[in-house]
Design brief:
The chain has 81 residues and is mainly alpha-helical. The protein has two domains: 41 residues, no CATH class; 27 residues. Helix content is 44%, strand content 10%. It is built from two helices and three strands. The protein has a three-stranded antiparallel beta sheet with strand order 1-2-3. β2 and β3 form a beta hairpin. It starts with 21 loop residues before the first strand and ends with a helix. The model has no long low-confidence stretch (mean pLDDT 91).
Length: 81
C-alpha cells in the first residue's frame, strides 16, 4: 500500500476572520504566528488547538480512505487464492 497518497495538507484557519494565510518565522518553530488579514497573534499550539475540529475531520477522511484501500487490497488478494 502506498501511504504517500494518503498524505493530506490541512489549511489552518484564523478563528477570528477565517483567513488561511499567516506570517511566521520558519526558522523559529516556537515563534508567533500572525494572521495576515486581521493581525491576530497565536502560538503555533494555540492555532492548532483552534483548528482541532478541522484537523480531526481531515484525519478521519484519511483513515477512511486508507481503510477502504486496505479492504480492497485484501479482497483482491483473497480472490486470487
Amino acid at each position: 500500500m502506498n501511504l504517500e497518497k494518503h498524505t493530506k495538507t490541512v489549511n489552518l484557519l484564523c478563528p477570528t476572520c477565517g483567513s488561511s494565510t499567516f506570517d511566521y518565522d520558519e526558522s523559529n518553530e516556537n515563534g508567533p504566528v500572525t494572521c495576515d488579514n486581521c493581525k491576530r497573534k497565536f502560538t503555533r499550539e494555540e492555532l492548532m488547538q483552534e483548528n482541532g475540529a478541522l484537523i480531526e475531520e481531515n484525519i478521519d477522511e484519511v483513515k477512511e480512505e486508507a481503510l477502504a484501500e486496505i479492504k480492497n487490497n485484501l479482497e483482491k488478494q483473497l480472490k486470487m487464492h
